[in-house]
Specification:
This protein has helices at 2-34, 36-62, 68-93, 99-106, 109-133. It has 134 residues and is mostly helical.
Length: 134
């Protein structure tokens, strides 16, 4: 289980760094032209593809067992860390607005699209574990 938790932390860190970089570009360059929802929908395939390969690399390097428990632990830890980091960044970037505003943003169409993608992100280790086991 230790390997799964280390991998979850690394998976989160890589995804967060990439998401931050893409988010800055999306917000500054794409969103003003097409709106928030279309900008998020344009970013998601890039982010999910990158996270698929990031997940594969992390699980191979850390040698996470292909068991459902280990892979779920990895994905759920990465997901929890991602949500916590996004909430903290939201508070920091938006002058310490309350977390209610963060949650309200999550239930917009763009927020729900992002949250759905994060759900897939959390399941990638499990999906790849099933492929490795077969």
């Amino acid at each position: 289980m230790k390997r799964a938790l280390i991998a979850g932390a690394l998976y989160f860190a890589g995804a967060f760094a990439l998401g931050f970089a893409l988010g800055v570009l999306r917000t500054a360059l794409v969103e003003p032209r097409v709106g928030k929802l279309l900008a998020v929908l344009a970013e998601l395939p890039l982010m999910l593809t990158a996270c698929w390969f990031l997940c594969r690399g992390v699980t191979e390097i850390v040698e996470v067992p292909a068991t459902a428990g280990a892979r779920l632990a990895m994905g759920l830890l990465a997901f929890a860390l991602l949500l916590a980091a996004e909430a903290a960044l939201f508070r920091l970037l938006f002058a310490l607005r309350p977390l209610d505003d963060f949650v309200a943003d999550l239930v917009t169409p763009a927020g729900l699209a992002g949250l759905a993608a994060q759900g897939l992100f959390a399941l990638f280790p499990l999906a790849q574990g099933r492929r490795a086991a077969s």
